[in-house]
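User: Show me sequence and structure for the first protein, then do the same for the second.

Assistant: Starting with the first protein.
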Amino acid sequence: MKNLAYQQKAVTELVDKTIRLLNLGGHRNKLVFEATTGAGKTVMACQMLAGLIDELRERGDSRYQEVAFIWFAPRKLHLQSYEKLKDAFDETRTLRPVMFDEIDQNEGIRPGEILFVNWESVNKETNVMVREGDTSLSLYEITDRTKEEFGLPIVAIIDEEHMFWSKTADKSAAVLDKINPAVEIRISATPKTSNPKEKVTVYRQDVIAAEMIKKEVVLNPEIELNFSDELELNANLIKAALEKRNQMAEAYKALGANINPLLLIQLPNDTKESMTADDTAIAEQVKQYLEVMNGITTANHRLAIWLSGEKENLTDLEKPDNMTEVLLFKEAIALGWDCPRAAVLLIFRKLQSDQFTIQTVGRIMRMPEQKHYPKDLLNVGYVFTDIAKDKIQIVTADAGYILNNTLTAHRREKLNNIWLPASYSERPNVERNYLGPDFKKILYDEATHFWNFEHGQMLFSLEELARLDNDYEDGDLPDSEELQINENRKKVANSLRLDVKNINVEIPQDVHFQNEEQTINVDTIKYARKATEIDRVFMAYISTKGHQFESKGRADKIASYLLEIIADFFGIFDTDAKKVVLYHQNRPKFDRIIDTALEKYLRKRNAAKKISEATREFKKYNWEVPEERIYDSETNHIEEVGNHALLPFVQLNQASNPEKNFVAYLEENKEYIDWWYKNGDKGKQHYAIEYSQSEGGAKSLFYVDFVVRMKSGHVYLFDTKSIDSDLLAPEKHNALLEYIKENSTNETPLYGGIIIQKGENWLYSPLPIENTTDTLNWNCFYPQNA
């Protein structure tokens, strides 16, 4: 690193202000450190920590002579920072970076130690690092010991502070409240903390003046869309971005700089790890174009891929002279990824999007040799995008960054499985919330009603329709041979533009900006979409409709029915019909027709569903512990227990306290328990029995919470409750007792019922109950006696 004035000034400020906050006393005094991407935040933080140690020891007016540090970072960024600081202090030994398992837990965090912590390992109460254990201290116990027994204040460094907000803001606050550091140094290019006691800012212009980052960003620079060829917009953008990369490569070569600039291409749906159909189509288009038109492939190492399940040529990608020219990626590139040769960014976006993030654009802002060049071409970051908006937002990344969206648990080997009679409901079609073929008639009737101006209520009055733009060019649609089609065309002449020649998209052109939070008004260039693009955009529009219904086949049905109606009414087919729907003045009418039809269809199905539920029938089958089970990672987490029938044990984030307490009780008594299983609460694959909510009433399904197999071979079926938590608990309990009586065998004796915690005991009744408040004659569940 160069010896930079702005860095030294920031380090001095950070040291002084941290000492000032330490001297204030109290807890959680916040200092925000804001520095633009590429300014060298980690380097400055490293120098600041070393300087703080020296200043505390040298100053006589400091409240403390020594401090301990915890460095929090999201994802795997803590490992990257740990390695950087370990290298930096390898010789001087001024500070000692440590991981959690390197701490002497009896001594806590020692003076000058920096404990590096991955945020995701502490932001849930169930995580090992923050949970009390028999053999090791939790992070909270260690920090308490550090403060109370050894008198050391804790300074918490919160790296990439903006990532701790949004969806995880409450969790962040809870963790920091428990640790209760004396000072929090919150670091980010885009901090979210408001009203800190102190703030240190490194300004973008100072970093540009020091030639550490590029002077500006240009969006779609001097882009010329070639209308003479048949390239669609995506191909035109790939071509333009690649040409810019090649221009930069020639400029570096002319200057004698051994730098191979990198083009980054980001797929549309970057908030989900799994590939959508749109992602896959664009990825294949990119690969094909690069290979056919430019000879760029993964085989010759000129193309690198960073996709879920597909990673190619990523080794040494950051090196200035690496031969890879293009990186295709989707999921957010690893936080803190530093590749100064990255120079051009092509961002594909979903149709509705008008945003891209500072963090993504920041990938191309670093100067590869930490200096500006005589050719200004090399001092600018270039972004190409298909965002079709007249305003574009530059935003910070959300805390809801990408995670694998499923968790899979597998049945333990050689499990003593059991088979229990169970019931399931095969939902009739009327109960399934899907779009059936009978939707076609409702959509057809709605379109007929909408354009039958003499009857019913219309979205637009005749006068409003007459004022709509109907400036047809020469070559109006010719008369059809079918008289009814001609009549229909005349009837809607003031409502729909039927002779749509082109569907245009307007994308930004030559927009200059700085990479910071802002909304930009843009000048645009008009591009006429090709037929393949029209197909894609049409289906994207249709996919925004009908989210009240199951997704499978929904868009295809709406699209095919709508196109049939346009063919029947107006004699317009295929691509021409799609153009009619997509035309900007036509689209509000189709919105109204489709949305109204979908709402009417939903009401029809709901009415039929009520009738069906009253006469529902259940089917019998033998349930067993499944071979595997897939959970949604958004609503579940892995809990470290060893005796669950499936491993790892995956627990619902919103699991009730009785459930969590019963899990702990089962684990405490695992010496008597062969295995236990936490059941699901809906679906054919989960264990359910039948019960009536009232005497003689319709049957429903009851999903028993826990199946517990004792080492004795006895099987207990328990449903955890707290007193009066479920009004239907007596009906469920009594049905379960009847089920146990009917299905218990010598080989698999069954016991159980509703189970409630009272103090240290878990109670269940061997007899029918009328409520869950009177537990006088209930039994205690003691695993050692079961």
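Switching to the second protein now.
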Amino acid sequence: MSCCGAGPSIAAAEIARARAPAEESVDPSFLREAKDGLSELTLIVPDMHCAGCISKVERSVKAVEGVERARANLTAHKLIIGFAEGAVEPERLVSTVRRAGYEARPVDPAVFKNMADEATGTELIRALAVAGFAAGNVMLLSVSVWSGADAATRDLFHWISAMIALPAIAYAGRPFFRSAWRALSARSLNMDVPISLAVILAATMSLFETIVGAEHAWFDASIGLLFFLLIGRVLDFRMRGVARAAATRLLSLSADSARIVDEDGTTRLVRTGAVKPGAVVEVAAGERFPLDGIVVSGASDVDKSPLTGEPLPERAGPGAGVFAGTLNLTGPVRVKVEKEAADSLLADIIRLMERAEAGKGRFVSIADRAARLYAPAVHALAAGTILFWLFIGVGWHEAVMIAVAVLIITCPCALGLAVPATQVVASGRLLRRGVIVKNGGALERLAGIDTVVFDKTGTLTSGEPAMAGEPKARAEDWALAAALAEKSRHPLARALAREAAARGIAPAALDEVREEPGSGMEGMAGAARIRLGRAGWAGEGERHEGERHEGEMCGQAARGAHSEIWLHREGAAPLVFRFVDRLRPDAAELVKRLKTMGLSVMLLSGDREAAVEAVAAELGIAEWRGRMSPADKVAELERLKAQGQSALMVGDGINDAPALAAAAVSISPASGSDITQVAADFVLSSGELAPVAEAVTTARRARRIIVENFAIALGYNAIAVPVAVAGFATPLIAAIAMSSSSILVTANALRLSLGARPARRPAQPAPALRQAAA
């Protein structure tokens, strides 16, 4: 739920204010010295969700005496505070944010990636804007020259063009000039070397022609060439640029500080990395476990969805194992640490993702492979052209101009646009169908898949428990159950409360309502005690059908695909409410369509095998696996790859993120976690599954059009290059020909948009995508 400037939800605010103690010690190692000499503290503030949140957090911190600056970053959910050394205690800054209603914890700033990609994108956009403005104005002046302006007017327009074009070329050409200089410094060549030569030579020769009062100058060709090249570079950057590393998103899960309990019972905040095995840490309700360990005191419900993908929490009492990144829901516990931060299960997930992402870098487009031969071939051609014309007796001026025309006409605009132009059009088509394309290069991989691997919970199913069958409960029982359920945060209790409200049942009035961590809710109806929760606990020791599963929270029975929650009133027989995770409406149709397209379909889930088998049978999926850990899913995908299969992974849970990164290509629903949306190549924004098949169809069409575009680009060069070498093309004609080939490639790509229909139920992208887009 968006805060819309009002701060986080009431529950989150209550949790934040309930932290104990209010100003616990902060390890000095969290502090860094900034470039301006101030001490700097970086905090993770996971509850920030909008501009109003940023404003509120920054204002609250800046009001603290001694704070010089405070800057919040919405995408990374971090707050950087600068203050004079010793002017304010770091503990006070943490407690100030918490008193504003936001959970906050110190984090080592070294874990954040640099913002080089963001700076590169900004530079390209600015360069494109400058080149476009200059090209438009120089073209207008050139029209007057082409129209037959007299010598004085022509020279004036040439000088005005020079004053516009030369500064614009110097600014807009920086991305190409820097790249070319780095290549030459390393004694190598790349595509930007001939591009830079063409632009610089055309501009230099144009300036020379203007100085001597010659008839022709080619400033329009120089800046126009840069403009078209920058269009391709921006498109390529946008489509190739992957969102921030998923490891950064995992910071919202990974607790970078831990509340360690000393021998005298006092607590202090330290860096998670400084906690050694054997130490005892305290984790309050609503906090995430900072490290893997064993519960030594207290009991609570633990949300293990980051590891299992299943939304239903599990009970954790003394002796139970807990893992870093999982959420402590209902009660404070103390945990004896068993593994260092670098060895935690969450760290293993991050490493799996990083390894998989590194593997993706091996996918190289045809255009990139062609670039290896392009630069030396163009240089050799231009040098040969000069030598040929000088050999037959033409002066150096004309020979250089012919060589410049060769460099311009062979500039790889059409080749460079062949892939990104098609990807942009395909992305627009899919967006109208309810698919957000995050990685244009993934379209090529999607076109070649032969297997589709689905997660279960939240992907093929809704991920939310729904009532299964009709409970044998009277209206009075429903009212008692609703009264307890509405005060619980347990998913089954919330589902029960929603069902009661849908039936128009008003909750009963109960006294002394309280929560028993790890067991359920309890209250008094007159003199009768009412309990709602696990089978064994709710039945007060009586043996019930679900009691043999009492290790699972709220009596989740592993019978088939059902989960259970029990109601017991003193003096009455216990009642059971059963729930099931229902299939999405279009799941069966999607599986059927994928099979008709010749694709194999698999189901991999961390859920119980009985539940997975039931879903697989209902959808007609023959190959399935249950109780799969994140590493198991990655191993299965690697097995498929070793067998020569190319797999599409569709998943929504944090536990699916490594598999999404490891698959050849991946899709996540918009309802999925922020991390899966970062790891995935595509995101379903429409709330439907049907667009998965549409994405595959569109990717296959895009692949055919890309092949056609390469043919167009190569055909253009086969015709245009001999014309330029023969001296029949001036730099201006070369620029026009180059631009025309780019337009032709773009027009061919636009064919992909024909027949596109909007998604049936358009929906807004999830918050993570809106933040990434911003």
